[in-house]
Amino acid sequence: MLSLSCKASIKAVVYLGSKLKPDERAGIKSVARFINxxxxxxxxxxxxxxxxxxxxxxxxxxxxFYISAKQKRIPVMxxxxxxxxxxxxxxxxxxxxxxxxSHPCPLHTDFKPVREQFKEMCSNSTIETLCSRVDQGIAIxxxx
Length: 144
Hints:
Layout: H1 4-19, H2 28-35, H3 39-51, E1 56-58, E2 64-66, H4 69-72, H5 76-84, H6 108-124, H7 127-135
Antiparallel strand pairs: 1-2
Helix pairs in contact: 1-2, 1-3, 1-5, 1-7, 2-3, 5-6
């Protein structure tokens, strides 16, 4: 359902929110290394996150990317919209361009409630919710 870029964006934002101290900044290389993603991809998604005001960046020798306490209260849905757009929650489970209740694909009946539940989860979960799970050790950002 979510693109690889969107998944990487969520991981990168959670990394910034859970692994950095409030006064720390992270560079593209350190984020990419930690979440095990390509530096070029991470650079692009971090810039999109800054443009969407989901994270901040500063330039210079002590610069980098970071997230404020206020930004941690942003719903995960904002990340999804910034990367994949709003249509991601209307897509067919098999990728058909025309799939509906009146002309369903073979997965439609089962996939539609799952898609709606995932949409609700992304709307109700904040970045802070995901960060706290990592901070508490009940969730991980990468496999060891």
